[in-house]
């Protein structure tokens, strides 16, 4: 069995990017509940993200969403973030909230609407130039609701063309990361529904085009760690959008629904060279805190990723490989589960304290007064949400 | 094979209740797209529902949703509807959009919040008294998002108590209809997730408490017609919320995703004595026209139900029973599918014309100028939606 | 946080029934792989079951399946088992392998075939009388493959009648336990597909008719712990068939696919009064060791149930209830997960040793020579399987 | 609306390959029911396949499965088939029934077992040379049942290497077709679980390596017609294994579960250039007639494909494209469904009679005496099945 001491330095490689929108309000089509202390501005979102990093040491970057986080001066925003102790991360485009995009954006039959959507991505690349962000993440809400409504294949061809135009605009240091999603908001077909589609689309673009795997965007029963292994094997796993789900794209706190699945995913990331300094796979969160407090929700999320990473690093891979090669099904499974069953919380608390972090980040946050402060100060204005 | 002439009179028994909210805007958590001509008031919703009935002869009642359709004078509203040629139907309660209900309503741990939710249902019963509605339909958006968040079993007990209090308030002519839903907006557990829960809850109440089956509220792969047969056998199928889905609760036009499933459902309704004058099962729609035009969307919906009802009535049940009893699997299936494969559209057009209705209701609507008129007239104000 | 010492005595209440068929060969429709040491007789199966109990102290009874375990003298078989240190448990009937049952057994349209199936259950009750078994477990493989093939509702009525006839034959100390299953071997409809159907069928019979919940027999995404809570609330959770699954009825080792789900299920059992001396819910396994060694597979299974029971017993229910009542979503979830994340293996090893059991039952079994012995001795004859 | 006359010649292009194993017995892991008249030899299977073609004109080839259809002289077998009026089609390999393959074949950690599996494929290619078959179809039953049991990624690499070795052995006229499957018989991970994996594996081999799409091998809710469109777009849709399902890989008669889905699939095949003389996509059946008669089951299957092909050919694609480009969601859907709702059975009967075929192939078969004859003659011997 691998010891915690052996994995200590590898844990230090972990960086998780938090989404600015996790600090704003979110909900379902039925209701968005507000909550006291919710940010009204991008700066307040960044301040909250910085708080998460301050207490956990795990979240050095915050991802932005355009236009939700649109500002006049991105260089100033970057400095603001750096002053708070974090950086700006991935830029997320949005082609699903403009009336023109009701029936499609990058795939629309109308060339003018496609160009509008492409131009929006150009604007996002301009933002990236100003913020120093590496990744442009594209999630397409496109698809159709009724059979016959759209030419599925024609849309695929137009998508390829639109993506190529966007990709050409990127600098050599920038990457395009394409997210797939099984369904929602489209209910019959989705233009990028699965990893196969995302892969074939980005493979046609070039080396700096990669796939984003959102853990909630699969059909029921899908073996997600297999896809992780496959995309790493193909050199195309650009990033994760971590969250968890019981049913659809529930966007719950990562690790909350099935911690063992998260462990298995992280094991394959490590095994496949996607973890830490080994690789270039970005770890991001994409979650909705519909009913729970948002900053504690984010703290819990990054801690869950860290705890399951620790357990995955603890797998005795030499013994595992030996058992696998001998065909000892039960022993191999036991070695694997031994690591999962190991309670790493005490060791992690010590590890944090060695690094000047609070041993229990959640307690430290709750005791810090930050939550009370923002609830008292952030009065008036419009709470941030998905618009 | 049964002939169309044989089923003509049975088709005349069909009545479908349309939901007022189908005429307002709806969408996903990502975006609600508006559309020209959308009603601003309850009266405009009723006018649109009346138009659907005028062109199809199938939709003599419109269901209301409180508080979305709240007015000062329900008797006046009823007269307005009758002047338009339709009646007011089921009253739907809403305990999912008030901030107090974030963590529950009829199941909440706080007795004051439970009472508030009960009082809302009492108010709905007052509306029913004024509108002459028979059914109080309760869909509970309640549940939890995280394991441990709630005491699943305690909530079930509180639900039973709250429902009993509401049920007592009903008159002998009124019914309580409890809807179940697999998930959404709650993502870990739903307080009434399946027909078994709805059934055991209403069975504890009394004869006038029944189950509402929404065709989109099941786990993937669920055999819905089995549940229809079972609830009719148990005397507890109060009503349908018809719609269709490919994935989750997509709320697409009924029959759009799997017309053969709709046919099978309607066959079991007829076989089980739930159709027309045989029974008391209400046929309602519950749909969202997120991207398509709303009135045509509703026309298509009621026509789909009618077409599949006609096909289901055409099943040669004597021959089917004989094949079933002989154990001739392929012959029984063939007899069943023969009815499904029969194109009833020409016969239905003639049937409508005999009754003074347009043979092609959709064409008649599109040619009528109604759509252009409402698009021109309904300018300004706030388009109706889910609030 | 509850301490291990606090739960020590409650752990001693745990009894798990193992299935005789887990020691024989099993497989898929594609292939049944044999393995050395597989029992050829019921006695050898019982000997293997006794070995599991000897090393774990958890499995004091073995369930039989008729006719797979048919013998001339059940009283002698019972003595044989008792000599080995275990008892005979639930009797499982089989109405799915006789040619007459191709299209149904208790639901068949032909009264003679129904009577044959009823008579088989009478024979099982005779076995129960001889073995002293309390429970008759009925899993019906019945249903249909094609729409129209069968009269779904008529079958439900015939099922009720057949079950009533069987139920009447039971003594007051005996119970009928009805299992439900979503699908397989029938692929269109199953006569007892869900807990609602099993519940309404047994509720019509009487107090000694109960539901068996097989953890692998649900639609994708089903919240199984909710059903556990509901059936306990209704007083109808007779027994569990434990196993685990990723896709369908995979019949994998319990806890292997989603240990957190097993934890949640066990928490609801305990909370609902179904655990140990509190209740009458039987804990059984129903699994297939298609590729792994069978006795170690069973040892792993009962240990998994024990480990998750320990974690579930560790939940600080007072603190949990307080957090739930305050509506502190994250704290309630954290208290719940704290117990799940607690590594109980060291404490359990000590607990076992205190009771004269090996601290590590798996290692003790592997070191005992039993496996080598049966592999050497059980040569020739026909290995037991599903026939 | 397109007329039937317009599609008459295109219907004549249809050729469906039937599987030899559909004529033998099949079942579930619980039971294989036998039936009178079941073939005992390959020749009898071919005779039955020829009967299907004689009555329908749709099934000019029969696929073989090695070793189930192993004979000494394949050239003689080919002549036998030709004498019966049909040809020999795809050769299916089998690496899931030998004890050596319990934990893998082309992916096994042991190079000797991999070589054995490769050699089996070489033997299949030898059969192809003798039979003149174009396609080698590889379905891999490989995977694992427990997390940790296998190195998912290492297996993927070994699979690539094994497939490359097999592919090299093919002549320029031969093709390798790789089938994917979501799960079963492996229950945790499958080595080729999805189209993305099959695609990336065959793309690495070369132009004559293609994907086989079995309509039953997907996760719940998967939009299969999207995958059809995508694989045709990528030039990699080698063949179909048609069947239908409600739950898992049920292998029911194609079109029996969701005829509208079959229609949508066929529409995309036609739209994407995969139909008839336009393309090289082979239409095959892969089904199990567990409870229904086998030859009538096959006749129903090929007729279902023909009926849905006719409906798909009837789509007014010019009007559809216009509606799609105008963004008229409801009109586009209506045009699409109009074709699906058209009852083509009378026209198809006339079309068949023009070609010297029986207007109603099922009735003609049942009246022909063939079934009675084989039931009388095929007495004794061992009925063919999956071994």
Please outline the helices and strands.
Four copies of one chain form a homotetramer.
Chain A: H1 4-11, E1 16-19, H2 42-56, E2 61-65, H3 74-84, E3 87-92, H4 111-131, E4 135-139, E5 143-144, H5 152-169, E6 175-179, E7 189-190, H6 195-203, E8 209-214, H7 224-233, E9 237-242, H8 259-271, E10 282-285, H9 294-313, H10 317-326, H11 329-341, H12 345-354, H13 361-368, H14 370-377
Helix pairs in contact in A: 1-9, 2-3, 2-9, 2-13, 4-5, 7-8, 8-9, 10-11
Structure summary, number of beta strands of chain A:
10
Strand content of chain A: 5-15%
Name of the level-1 CATH class of chain A: Alpha Beta
N→C terminal distance of chain A: 49 Å
Question: What can be said about this structure in brief?
Answer:
4 copies of one chain form a homotetramer. Chain A has helices spanning 4-11, 42-56, 74-84, 111-131, 152-169, 195-203, 224-233, 259-271, 294-313, 317-326, 329-341, 345-354, 361-368, 370-377; strands at 16-19, 61-65, 87-92, 135-139, 143-144, 175-179, 189-190, 209-214, 237-242, 282-285.
If you had to describe this structure to a student in words, what would you say it looks like?
The structure is a homotetramer of 387-residue chains. By secondary structure, the first copy, chain A, is of the alpha/beta class. Chain A has a single domain, classed as Alpha-Beta Barrel (TIM Barrel), CATH 3.20.20. Chain A contains 14 helices and 10 strands. An 8-stranded parallel β-barrel of chain A has the order 1-2-3-4-6-8-9-10, surrounded by 6 helices. In chain A, helix 4 links the parallel strand 3 and strand 4. The longest helix of chain A is centred in the first third of the chain and has 21 residues. Chain A is globular and about 60 Å long. Chain A starts with a helix and ends in a 10-residue tail after the last helix. In chain A, 61% of the residues are buried. Chains A and D meet through helix 5, strand 7, helix 6, helix 7 and helix 8 of A and helix 5, strand 7, helix 6, helix 7 and helix 8 of D. Chains A, B, C, D: It is an enzyme of class 5 (isomerase). Chains A, B, C, D: GO terms for molecular function: L-rhamnose isomerase activity; metal ion binding. Chains A, B, C, D: It holds the Pfam family AP_endonuc_2.
